[in-house]
Amino acid sequence: MASFFFRCTECDSRYNEDEIRLTCPVCSEQQLPGGVARGVLEVVLTDAPTDWPPLRFSEIEFLHRFLPLSPTSLLPAIPVGSTPLLSVPRLRRELEMPRLWAKDDTRNPSGSTKDRASLLVVAKALEYGVGTIATASTGNAATALAAIAAAAGRRAVVFVPASAPEGKLIQMLAYGADVVRVDASYDDAFELCMAACDRFGWYNRNTAINPFTIEGKKTAALEIAAQLAPEFADVVVVPTGDGVILAGLAKGFADLQASGLIDRVPRLLAVQPEGSAAIVNAIRTRSDSIEPVHSAASIADSLTVQVPRNALLCLRRVRESYGTGVAVSDDHITAASGRLARHTGVFAEPAGAAALAGLEKALSEGSVDRSENVVLLITGAGLKDVTAARRAVEIPAPIPADLESVAATLTDSRQES
Amino acid sequence: MASFFFRCTECDSRYNEDEIRLTCPVCSEQQLPGGVARGVLEVVLTDAPTDWPPLRFSEIEFLHRFLPLSPTSLLPAIPVGSTPLLSVPRLRRELEMPRLWAKDDTRNPSGSTKDRASLLVVAKALEYGVGTIATASTGNAATALAAIAAAAGRRAVVFVPASAPEGKLIQMLAYGADVVRVDASYDDAFELCMAACDRFGWYNRNTAINPFTIEGKKTAALEIAAQLAPEFADVVVVPTGDGVILAGLAKGFADLQASGLIDRVPRLLAVQPEGSAAIVNAIRTRSDSIEPVHSAASIADSLTVQVPRNALLCLRRVRESYGTGVAVSDDHITAASGRLARHTGVFAEPAGAAALAGLEKALSEGSVDRSENVVLLITGAGLKDVTAARRAVEIPAPIPADLESVAATLTDSRQES
């Protein structure tokens, strides 16, 4: 918060901030051909700091002390995690939840929580001297592996269903991954990747198979706890497909509890789409076994699995945390996606927005109280699936470039609060 | 870097990391129906830290001391900036530039450098008590304003050419902005926004008109200098449309020099597409006036302007820094976009990748030396313009889910280094 005055970059006139100012009132009178701006005002500071701040303790370095890496191993040169925990004041008012937070994992390098798992798996591949890493994915894990492998100079072979959203597909191809588009479901791609790793000797990053995916994802819990300390989270709301993100969060909180850094572990709330709710069904029917959903389908492609690979561990972790699960409809996810963007400035893919939909459902069921300290994990960025996002908005028709048309179109348009 | 062993989450067997391990060799023998994983291995830490790190000095707080905000003003609750400065080891080797860096501004909340300007403008609007903020934009500035205004609870009215990429359009609509799609160029949208602000009394965020856009963008320079300290940048490579990002960087370095925090200011290298190179043309012909490019066109939509609004100030700042300008072809931008993603893991929109294309051109011309400390400013995320990104990749055809098809498709695929 610096003191300042305005100075015209052309005539050097000075102005105080005594009114709302744009360009220099003197110079901007004279038009240049074509509309090049004249009299751009510059801010001149009068009390800027004269020393750099002291070197700060590296948060990253602290987190690394929880990661199963050898002392000599190097992380790929692409920072992952350390994403913001947002205080979402407008959403707090809307939901009457004064202690609501959003962990914005859309800020990861490839735009999803999966970067956390891929970072650690690629670091281990470097440690082991393995040249090729493979994974099956609905889209985000493949993209994440492609990005981190690119930064580390390793080959990524990724198996995705042919139906993966175009944005994710183009993103993983841009990073230079070998992309195997399988004319089948994610579950078939999963099995094919397993077999290919066996046959070709690749390092297998498949979720629920490689133990380091959970270790990577646990960093989200370490960060949430560090960002909230000395407070604790009561509930973390977790979009759930295979169940590995939830198991990763549980692991992170367990590691912190074992270290004495937190006293208690938050309740974990698993959110699945109604069309792909194998884990939530088991939670709600108190079953110990998983009934595959053979016709699994949802707008949240990242959560669409027939057989949640990490279902057993995920179930156990939800129960140990005294958490629960909710299933949400695609329409609810789409609506929540709009509310999240409009009230927080976070544009999430459907899987990410499912966290808000799940919270709303849990509030209506009474399994979460509005006074609790609740964290929404927003797992992926909205630009990853523009086709899904298009459902939540209405694209306006082009208008002629005149003020009357502007006035008319704005009168017609829905009013945002 | 923690010490650890593996424990099976089902049978509790323990294993050392004596070989590459996936699931528990005992439990995973027994298949569950449908492929639910058995015997997921968990990492057990043996030497995790037992204290939180000391509270760190807030980097954000330090940066705020350079911002023209009143002591009581609040920033919108959405962190902007503090993006990573990447050491890009593989690109360094490729270009034989041991001191090359990439400032990854794709990590901003709406995915571009424009968030920096919008944060400050919205903060000033809050300070002034203004309810509606308007801007014209090729796409990113509008999206950025929409995101920050959403977080702050202010109305954004944005004027964009009808040709703006769909991803950006959907993104700004998702944030709840009032979007005026003008059936005309960015330049016409610019004039229309000016007139609409006059008529309706809105606060005008137009670039080169509102002095706080430069102040917001200068934070990129503050961060680059802080991240490189005690070293200095010799050159910063800046994708250039209207010229405000470059002027903002110059302002940031100037503020730091005035504070005695840096001894010298880097040379600023302006990069424009050949089809929209008004500023670079002026630099290279040593002209003091700007010749509008009436048929401006480029794959880099963010850099496509007929009349660069901040051309005069930008020209002066390039010259004062002893910098220069280069124009690059659309094909070069597309190719650079692929190289950037494959060698760094940063997936940029064409405007962002133009920084790498510009550097390559400057190297071939001799205006940048390979031994210099050079920073590429990567201004926007690749997912913002999937149509452009599609040009740089080949989408593979779906294959049947069997190993023979995998082997065949990988033999055919291009080999990445």
Structure description:
In chain A, strands 4-5-13-10-11-12 form a six-stranded mixed sheet, sandwiched between helices. In chain A, a hairpin with a 5-residue loop joins β1 (4-8) and β2. Helices cover 39% and strands 14% of the residues of chain A. The model of chain A has no long low-confidence stretch (mean pLDDT 91). Chain A has helices spanning 59-64, 89-95, 114-128, 140-152, 166-174, 186-200, 211-228, 244-258, 278-284, 311-320, 330-344, 350-365, 386-390, 403-412; strands at 4-8, 14-15, 41-45, 85-86, 100-104, 132-136, 155-161, 178-182, 203-204, 235-239, 267-273, 324-328, 374-378. Chain A has 14 helices and 13 strands. Chain A is of the alpha/beta class and 417 residues long. The first copy, chain A, is globular and about 75 Å long. In chain A, α3 crosses α4 and α4 runs parallel beside α5 (166-174).
